[in-house]
Model the fold of this input.
Amino acid sequence: MHNDTIAAIATPPGVGGVGVIRVSGSDAFETVLPLFKRPGGATALPPSHKLTFGHIIDPQSQEVLDEVLVAFMHAPHTYTREHVVEIQGHGGPLILRRILRAVLAQGARMANPGEFTMRAFLNGRLDLAQAEAVMDLIESETEAGQRLALQQLQGRVSEQVQQARHTILGVIARIEASIDFPEDDIPTPQAQELSPLIADAQKQVLLLLSGADQGKLYRQGLRTAIIGRPNVGKSSLLNAFLRTERAIVTPIAGTTRDTVEEVANLRGIPLHLIDTAGITPTDDPVERIGVQRSRTAAESADVVLLVFDASEPLTEQDRLVSAEVQAMGFKVQTPDEEATARKRPVVIVLNKSDLEQKLEIAELKQLWPEGVFINTSTLSDAGLQHLENILAEHVLAGRKLYSESVLITSTRHQEALRRANEHLEASYSSLEQQLPLDFVSIDLRAAYDSLGEVTGETASEDLLDKIFSEFCIGK
Done:
């Protein structure tokens, strides 16, 4: 049901200065007013979209639950385009739960995850791409990711998708008018007339697709595993990237027994750094679990920082780790190669460069003949800027970082655009083969519907349920 009144705590779990309970639906005002007591005993509905001071009480016992500010907001000028009430109380979990229970006792229903945003979509305030951008905006880990999410929320992605749909619809209309109304002497459109229009639509779709891989980097980031034998400085490297002491560092080998994951900012791209336990044979059951988790982290990574201790000669353990990384499909990537999900690069780091160098580069080059070796010292920060530059150059393959152009950040949108492009390609092929225009129209309609999945106009109910179920409750 989408016409009942729903309620939920809209602020994150935990203790805070302020907590918000959100109520939406046709009976939102009638639900909250009996709970809201104002100084002087006023009972009239307060002005819309203005905070009003008072107390929330338990209607049964008349116990004061909290001192609050309440905003009563009239439809349609609200987030859901329904009547909305937001109760701002103190941010203690017990306080908020008690207020929420009082609201639910008045007849409201507990909101499902993402149900407020789903109502905003169903009531036409947001399209589906904009609704998804709400969660992207909340979860942004860098300023560049935040700006891209805001672009999508403001409708820039939807606008370009709609332009392509409008072009396709124009072609469909020409074809179907000639098929459906032959008695009106509507001339049959010719291939030379339709081809440029289809090409124009395809150009618009390809323009959106061209930045999709880059957009996904800003949204999802790069999983970067720091791999090496024990005590080569992996945890120190993690701390240096983060500019904070996140991982425990000691001279004792094997300090890290589990994976530690944190996010650093690589020129606007979230770099999910995974500090791993040293990969080494061991009889210790705890260390063995840590080593296995290190292997799992490496296998799921987009890029590996393979760390060696430059102050010690190459060891058998170093060779073992190199062999394992190579067996996982990682390779040294030359600067002129384009980074893709299938070419997972390894960057070779020679750490502890502030000490006397005893590692023979010639030996290491036998293991990694095309390797670019980066000397770093986490003690003096030497080489760390160069390492970031190498990551940007090799992982991003020299592509320009964030620009003001619209970038697709969602895998779902990317797949819908790819399907649309395939159908446009098929319709173009049908024209060239001089097949009946019905065949051309079928593929054009499929392309039109694929693009509609981005904005939600042709999205199935199952897809909507899946998307909004991933939202937090209260949003």
